[in-house]
Amino acid sequence: MRASRLVAQAGVIAALYAAATLLTLSTFQALAWGPVQLRISEALTVLGCVTPAAIPGLWLGALIANAWNLSQPMGWLDMVFGPLGSLAGAAWSWRMRGRTGVALAGPVVANALIVPAYLPLILAGSGFYDIPALGWRLEDSWFAMYLLGMAAVGAGQVLVVYGLGWPLLAAMRRTGLAGVFEGMSRDG
Length: 188
Fold this sequence. Notes:
Layout: H1 2-28, H2 54-66, H3 75-95, H4 100-103, H5 105-123, E1 130-131, E2 136-137, H6 142-175, H7 177-186
Antiparallel strand pairs: 1-2
Helix pairs in contact: 1-2, 1-7, 2-3, 3-5, 5-6
């Protein structure tokens, strides 16, 4: 019975993550994808502190959500590597679940390291990497674009994961909703 509950949890988490991402993309557009990525769905990464089902659930949710970008020439990069950030972040969160502040660093760091590595290929020529006021033309250097991307993606992740996710986790624990996930994870 435990395995079926974990699969069901993973499916629900995947559906919630994908729906929240697509809602954010359609509502906030430029702030939801690209170098900033203020995706409300990233608040759900806190579920990695509650159930191991979040590991496949967040990966699958990111895979489904990022499939929208397949119409773009480099969209497959986002579909393959974006979910790897979710997978790594959720695995870290589950492993460090006893220390919430450290656990939530997993999704932030994983996405800040992985996503900016391929963003220059997707966003080249978009103008994001040029900052005329400072005289910067970063598109001449992948490493410079990567560093700017790390800062931008990392900042967006910190805002959503710690600013929205941590209060969500606290509310789940306070209301007992976290216990439902935890109980389902331990049932046999």
